[in-house]
Sequence to fold (179 residues):
Amino acid sequence: MTHMVKRVMIDRAKIQEMVDRLAGEINRDYEGQEIIVVGILKGSFIFMADLVRKITVPTLIDFMSVSSYYGGTKTSGIVKIVKDMDVNINGKNVLIVEDIVDSGLTLSNLKDLLYTKDPASLKVCVAFDKPDRRKTEIRADYVGMSIPDEFIVGYGLDYAGRYRNLPDVCILEPDGGKK
Ligand code: 5GP
Ligand code: MG
Fold:
């Protein structure tokens, strides 16, 4: 594997401010209602854990795993359901929690699929958004931060399975010559 060095793009303090703001919006919008928060594995796991601890409306938690990246840095455009939800979302308020929207293909496919299960409402909360890369018209209802077109890792996001545990969001760069 090529050696990489990391540069911090968004530090942990900024991330926590972002999570506080998003949770505030969610708590206001769903006041008096119950929500099912569906985290999209694996990238959302840290964001999800931070976010749901700040959500004060009644909440059910579930996870799904879909894959559209096969270990590289390019979007294939194919979404495969690796693990489906366990709860029945029929008639419920569903909030999808995703790490990042890039081309938008993952989310738009996923939304189409979940709509067939007749939720009362279906919204999306993403930590990070790369609006310049969109290949389909999709907008998340709650967006933590818009970022430039760079491949990020950390705070749950990986490169070939690694770096998910970094507490800050970082950019990978070639490591000047070392192999
Ligand atoms: P989309 O279908 O929107 O192109 O891709 C969304 C998925 O691609 C995300 O859930 C994430 O797994 C992956 N992805 C997109 N951009 C990045 C990035 O900058 N870093 C990492 N680690 N994953 C990304
Ligand atoms: Mg993902």
About this structure: Residues 70-77 have pLDDT under 50 and may be disordered. Residues 11-148 form a domain with the Rossmann fold fold (CATH 3.40.50.2020).
